[in-house]
Amino acid sequence: MAQLFTPGADALYRLALMTGVACLVGLPVLAAGIVRSNYVTGVGVAPAQPLPFSHKHHAGELGVDCRYCHTTVEKEATAGIPPTHTCMTCHSQIWTGSDMLKPVRDSYAQDKPLEWKRLNKLPQYVYYNHSVHVTKGIGCSTCHGDVTSMQMTYRANAFEMQFCLDCHRAPEKYVRTPDQVWNMTWKPPADQASLGPKLVEQYHIRGGARLTECGICHR
Amino acid sequence: MVGAVSGGPLIRPDETLQGIGGTVTAIPLTHPGNRRWWIAFAGAASLLGLFLLTLGYLLVTGPGIWGNNNAVVWALDIASYDWWIGVASGSLLVSGILLLVGAEWRGAVNRVAETLALLATAAAGLYPIIHLGRPWFFFWNLPYPNTYDLWPQFRSPLLWDAIDIVSFLVICVSLWFIGLLPDLATLRDRAQVEAMRQADIKAPTRKLALLRAQVYGIVASGWRGSAAHWQIWVQAYRTVALLGVLLVVSVQTGASVMLAGSLMPGWHSTLVPVSFLVNAVYSGVGVTAVIVMLIRLVYGLDALVTARHLDVLGRLLLCLGCASAYCYAAEYFDTFLNGDAQARGVLARRMTGEYALVSWTAILGLVLPAQILWSRRARTAPLALAAVGLLVAIGAYADHVMVLVVTLTQDFLPSSRLPYGVDIWGIATFAGSIGLFLTLLLLFLRYLPAVSIVESRRLALTESPAVRDATHAAASRAAAARPEDNAASAPLWGVSASFASQGDLAAALQAVSGIRPDHVHLDGHGPVPMPRTLRALGLEGRSILPYALAGALLGGAGFFGMCLYATAYDYVFLIGGRPRLSWPSFVVPSISFAMMAGCVAIHLALLVLNRLPRLNHPAFNIPGFLRASDDRFFLTAEARDESFDAERIERRLAGLPAEAGRPLEIRRIPR
Fold first, then answer.
1. Structural contact between residues B425 and B65, judged by C-beta atoms closer than 8 angstroms
2. Which of A182, A210, B250, B389 has the smallest number of Cβ neighbours within 10 A?
3. Are B93 and B243 contacting, i.e. CB atoms less than 8 angstroms apart?
4. What angle do CA B437, B394, B166 make, to 5 degrees?
5. Distance between CA B164 and CA B1 in Å, rounded?
6. In 3D, which of B173, B174, B159, B172 has the Cα closest to residue B559?
């Protein structure tokens, strides 16, 4: 009696079966990897801006305070993007002929704002308030990374929900004393384990259960 | 079970093993009634087209097209879901219970019931997805590592349902496929015979014929009907059926607690899970009856689906009809005797309110038609049975609509009362899902055996005198089987011998089992399970149960542990004041998951223990081996090493007395 299949058919069939199983496992893993990759989240990617503004130079080397430009960070929900006038407070006096700064002067002359590419975005359905975070001991660098080391500014963290929840579930791990909030190179001190809970109490942060309620962020 | 059913044979007395194979495989291989099939298929496919159209519109516009609104969030969509999953549960339960109680006559009904369960689940499974506002995010319901750092809420019956549906689909596919496996081998062998015939006469369609045989061959995964295969197959089939029966209870619990666990008037009764289960099984049996009658009529399968089968289906419908009537009566009695005002109001609105027509359709459809089945004449009349089945199915659908809509249109709060009217798109969606179901059913009927060949053959072996006559005739013709004299030309794989009956095969195996077992691997091959050969093969006591049990326990415990970990430790979330360790809510999805894990374990065991899939095997070199899936039994003695003594085995076989193991033919098989 003739065989319906050649011996090689078995090898092919098993290969197909194993490929199927591998795809079943591999494709979701691949998809999960892609979703988390910097390609999708944009972490570490510095897009071209209207002019190459350097946080490293201004905030790091020259020591300009964050709040000099982002004026509303302690009082309002948004930290605020500085208007061209803020740039011109200095650059009407120094580097006035620089080619690099031409877009700033043009913007000032034409009364048209510079259009910066936004890096840190939250979805519309997320309520976020800068002021409550910085006044209750959460420093800039916890979310934005060490901006003072960024020549061109990039996104330091993917603002996915797990990133927010990590801190909302255990604020004592990240909370700082008020003087450390603007410290861009802050690392948890050795006594964070005992200091953290004390600070949480001092700031009246209602931890875990309250901070993870849906309505805290999704109002 | 059979004893309780009176009158008429379960199979026509002139049915033989070969005849059964021929009758059943003729449908997929020669497509009788081609024109009728195409007309039906065109109708079903146009309904399917309507379904696709509706889904497209739904994706663009949203569930509002069904007329659902803020109060009536569940209407025809969930009614259709409940109905389909009810039909699936009923069909699965029928098939599972027939298998578990070992009803010999099940072959005629089982395959259809298993197929209905599978296709109805496929139709049902779409509804929970498409009724979401953003169906493309359906996977948010499943526990997977996500970037939200969230777990699904395992305390919610909505989540149980997601797990239930996935498990149900796996079990349905599994039960259906395991039952189908040996029949696919029969189909493959018959298709191969046809392909070889066409190749001999150089028919223009010979390539297509070969391709068809190979497609059946791939799906049959190299099933050879070996005694060892059959042993594991019988156990796997029964065990998956058991898992399926348990899953039905868990699925219907999930579906009903979604209502009963809420605070809506008319829903939160302890009777809801029971009446859900009863009506689900009832509608499943009803639809099974309709489809079985239809297939019997169209393909003329009166020989295999006999009057006694109709009688059994009729009795089952009658029983369930009485149970359904009891559920209604109990609900009314209980509510009017000691229910609250809201619940009484709901019952009154059902009977007299805006949707009274739906309610009366439900009650009359479910309670009354089955009562004519007290008459034996009605039970054995295919038309009457199909009509009752259809009315029951309609009644069950109306029941789901009644339960959902009457309650939702009038909540406790006057502010959240909104009227609901059935929208044409809601009907189109349901009609479309019927189109999906019918299209798949028609494809099944055209390409796969609609009646279980194996089960019918097992029945024929015990019930049909023609089978015994054919066996005797074959055995007496083979007066003196002689070994061939083509000794040792090609490298030898082993020796084969063919027999007319399992008894002969078992006797011959017993006779040769003593010959140097280290050098010989013995096996039997045949068209039905061969329990009598297992002792000689030394396979007695081999069981698939440890694998099933380990799979189910590990799966169930793993899922339960995951729920506990998620809810009590990793994702603590105060919801409705429920405790952190609210373990009772995790039992239902864990059971569903356990059933699925057990089923997957059984499948792996079935393949690994049987060394399948194996498409090319030396046993297929045996001349006439294609009849191993028809009416012949083969013994194979495979050489394990150089000292294999073929002549000794041949002599021993040839020396056996007639009617007690003498082979019809003895062959040497090259590697």
1. yes
2. A210
3. no
4. 40
5. 31
6. B159
Judged by CB atoms closer than 8 Å, whether chains meet at A1 and B621 is answered as yes
Q: Which two tokens stand for residue B466?
A: 């023609």
Out of A2, A13, A208, closest to residue B615 by CB: A13
A33 in contact with B, Cβ within 8 Å: no
Helices (DSSP H) in B565-645: which residue ranges?
584-609
- ipTM given for this complex: 0.83
The tokens for A44 are: 């570490």
- DSSP H helices, chain A, are 7-36, 38-41, 55, 66-69, 84-91, 102-110, 130-135, 140-144, 161-169, 192-202, 208-211, 214-217
∠A85-A86-A88 over CA atoms, to 5°?
A: 60
Q: Which two tokens stand for residue A195?
A: 């200091």
Angle between helices B34-61 and B424-447 (to 10 degrees): 140
In sequence order, what E strands does B234-342 have?
none
- What does chain B come to in residues? 671
Q: Shortest CB distance from A4 goes to which of B148, B192, B613?
A: B192
Residues of B within an 8 Å Cβ radius of A:
144-150, 188, 192, 196, 213-214, 217-218, 222, 572-574, 613-616, 620-626
Give, rounded to a whole angstrom, the gap between the first and last alpha carbons of chain A: 74
Please work out, in degrees rounded to the nearest 5, the angle formed at the alpha carbon of residue B528 by the alpha carbons of B524 and B533.
35
Phi, psi values for residue B634, rounded to 5°: -120, 140
Distance from CA of B216 to the nearest CA of A (A): 11
The two beta strands, B665-670 and B520-525, are: unpaired
Which pTM was predicted? 0.90
β B492-499/B520-525 pair status: unpaired
Name the minimum distance, in Å, from the CA of B208 to any CA of chain A. Answer: 14
* Cα A23 to Cα A29, B139, B612, distances in angstroms: 9, 18, 21
Q: What is the pLDDT of residues B513-569, one digit of tens each?
A: 887 777 888 999 999 999 989 988 888 889 999 999 999 999 999 999 999 999 988
